[in-house]
UniProtKB/TrEMBL annotation:
This is G-protein coupled receptors family 1 profile domain-containing protein. It comes from Loxodonta africana (African elephant). The keyword Cell membrane applies. The lineage of its organism: Eukaryota, Metazoa, Chordata, Craniata, Vertebrata. It is a multi-pass membrane protein. Residues 37-286 form the G-protein coupled receptors family 1 profile domain.
Length: 311
């Protein structure tokens, strides 16, 4: 005698207290910064010929993924906060799970391919252009999307196949699979275990590639005789290492902890970190620590100021 619920209700990240209005305003500023910074990064890489290399090719895709990831979460959260209600249909919830997990998986594998790119560039510079050809780069990007899409499709379809007949309220600000499964009116323990194993593999396989690549990079850098060469190699890799630490640190805290150690507040804070803060910080990290990107930006600003002077 159980009645299936027609839709879900997202409880959101904030209440309507003055302090939470302030935090909401900060998140909206972060959203706008993320959109403009990632959009600008994609534009610079497209228009500046000095940035037409495999490293920046991957970086442009990372910026696009970050832009799509934050756009999948924040606009819906903002509408719910401003208008109230928080209702989301089964289809809307399924699409949000699909897009979110697809983009999350994409970034996992793309960051691994970016680490391998840096390894080839530093350890074998003479064969770099041959190993990291345009065709190979496109295959790597396509592989990232494929792995992410398969993971997102499987989890979205199987999650929504369960009957939901208890509470409608999802104690989160978006449809996160573990939180949604708590509302199922059937035993989901086997599926949750499968998801847990799948998440570990999706995180650890790319992370092992990243770790191996940077271990070999470290060995290659220490063998360099030129201090200038070592400094340039470390400068090239430091931005990527910072991005990897931010992304994988938050993702591992969320998806590699057993469910018994999860709490609603912690999950919301960590999820906010890698769905909002990381997409905003990534382009800033790469632009502030990269002379070629800052040079391209200065060149673009110089063209704009020159055009205004001519007008």
């Amino acid at each position: 005698n159980q009645t299936l619920i027609p839709h879900f209700i997202l409880l959101g990240l904030f209440t309507h207290s003055p302090l939470h209005f302030f935090f909401f305003s900060i998140i909206m500023v972060m959203f706008l910064v993320a959109l403009s910074a990632n959009g600008l990064m994609i534009f610079l890489i497209h228009v500046d010929s000095r940035l037409h290399s495999p490293m920046y090719f991957f970086l442009s895709w990372l910026s696009l993924m970050d832009l799509m990831l934050i756009s999948t979460i924040v606009p819906w959260m903002a509408v719910d906060f401003l208008l109230g209600g928080g209702a989301i249909s089964f289809t809307g919830c399924g699409l949000q799970i699909l897009f979110f997990l697809t983009l999350l998986g994409d970034e996992c594998f793309l960051l691994a391919f970016m680490a391998y790119d840096r390894y080839v560039a530093i350890s074998n510079p003479l064969r770099y252009s041959m190993v990291m050809s345009r065709r190979v780069c496109w295959i790597m990007v396509a592989g990232s999307w494929l792995f992410g899409l398969v993971d997102g499709l499987i989890q979205a379809v199987f999650t929504l196949r369960f009957p939901y007949c208890s509470s409608q309220e999802i104690d989160h600000f978006f449809c996160d699979v573990p939180t949604v499964l708590k509302l199922a009116c059937t035993n989901t323990s086997l599926y949750e275990t499968m998801i847990y194993v799948c998440c570990i593999l999706m995180l650890l396989l790319p992370f092992s590639v990243i770790s191996t690549s940077y271990l070999r990079i470290l060995v290659a850098v220490l063998c360099m005789r030129s201090a200038e060469g070592r400094q340039k190699a470390f400068a090239t890799c430091s931005s990527h290492m910072a991005v990897v630490s931010l992304f994988y640190g938050a993702a591992m805290i969320t998806y590699m902890r057993p469910q018994a150690y999860h709490s609603s507040k912690q999950d919301k804070v960590v999820s906010a970190f890698y769905t909002m803060i990381t997409p905003m910080l990534n382009p800033l990290i790469y632009s502030l620590r990269n002379k070629e990107v800052t040079g391209a930006l200065r060149k673009l600003l110089g063209r704009c100021s020159f055009g205004e002077g001519q007008g």
